């Protein structure tokens, strides 16, 4: 639409541009203008006035005695010089080949025609009775849509007509709206009927009187004349007109939006005083009242964002801009985001503002640095520190250092967290190390600063200094640091510290890396800490009895001092300790060490006798007998103990799993008083009962496993065996199947999958009617004893 044609009550027509500026003015008549019609190109304007004349913008009067007018949509073209007028009659004017106007009567006799709308080949008009549609191509009237509320005066509540497209007509009259679709009639149903018919696809009533209609996609724009009841007086009064968007349904409608319009003198206006016109393709709507013209347009995303910003709904505005960034024209996503950040800062919600910086500032380094300095100015560097870029986009090192210095002044824990989170490339590592060192001078035992300094040293590859701090703090990451950076050369003089921190981990690490730290070096470092040396040498001996053989003599004293329960196993397993030296060492710790030597020399009976006679230690004697696991030794122990009640008690309590207790009980003299005999016998019975239960349990498991394996073997042996031309006889090595399958043949297939021709199988391989695979029988008797015989 390039202009707006406006007729007045004083017979003048003004042409206005879309901003409302008057471009042309025409003195058409001295009475009011009733209707103006434009063709599609806008070249011709048909004007109908109250004095009964129709004029074109380019010529003199075209017709007389009309009330309304409608030009053919393509009036400008020479082939379409047509227009219709309405008064009491509907007249069609056409130019003939002599360039003269020819008049045709289309309709009359139903009162005054108040509205005409022409689209393509269809002319719709409204009179006192209803709405008619005329097909100019077939020269047939195809429908008559009756008026619903006949009590309303047609001149006060005129009909509103609007074509949505070439076949859809929207009719609004009073409070009723109907949507009519022109359709082609089936040729078989025509007879004397028009070739087209009209179907009403939607019909519903509205709350207010309709002054105008216009299509908006699949919705409708409606202009309502509103009357409301006064609260003070029992009478109606005229309210502001309403412009609504509604969604038509088959029998009702859904209100999408509603706006009350403020126009001058709306209190004095009637329904007929308002008009709604629209410009197709531009979503522009013109609301005309006696004193005002209001231009309405469909709100776009920019309008929506304007409204959200006005209401300070910045988050929703930002979200809307991001979703529709391709369609917005007046707004910029980043600027909206900056406005949101400013709003959050003004509210004091610094953490949310900082979080939004990640999304809004993106990769704009200049904006990032400006925001950082702003947060510094307001004392909120901590808030933005968690959200600074640290990936592909990186700010200047000075920015990160400024934040680290701020944390170092006020929050050691936060400083340590940033050091762990930020890559070391973001800042000058040496400068931060120096700053931490300066703080440690004032607080040398602060574990948080020491740990952070160790992490800085690690990043700077000064591992020895980091290791020293970790050991001082007994930090759990010390072993990981050693392994990760191969710092074994740096820990040779720190082995005692490592052992003090965690003996088990330290020893395992040293033994796993003997090629980097030798056993001799470890022993040398632990010489002044014999308890730690024993732990190391004990684990070394457990791994390999021969690796630390030159320290075995030394270990005897260490075991005797720190781990006596493991001394005897050590002496038993070690073959690198001379007996005289063993006795010499043991003599420093035990009163009678001779039995160790006797045991080592293999004289176990004499060693047992010494334990029992000289030491009188029945528990040690039983333990010694258990270690040797010798039946004669147990017999000697029973014989020696049979007249000593305390020894008998000890034996009854301990030999149940090694010797049958009945042998001991039968040899006890009748009448001998044995301490705690009842408890000992109860224990023997309980042990025996436990053994029975274990045996029964094992038996059940064995039976179940045997049955399962038997079933599995049975299923396996029941399976078929594939025999084809690739298989050979294990005896003659010829193909197992004959070339002529029509001849009879016999094949023997064993479960071991060896195959023979029946005639090739040696006869000695049979036993009680069972044949054996000769190949498997040569290895072991039994496998392949089952047989499959295939005959044909």
TrEMBL record:
It is found in: Endosome membrane; Late endosome membrane; Early endosome membrane; Lysosome membrane. GO terms for molecular function: zinc ion binding. Signal peptide: none annotated. It holds the Pfam family TPR_Vps41. Plays a role in vesicle-mediated protein trafficking to lysosomal compartments including the endocytic membrane transport pathways. Belongs to the VPS41 family. This is Vacuolar protein sorting-associated protein 41 homolog.
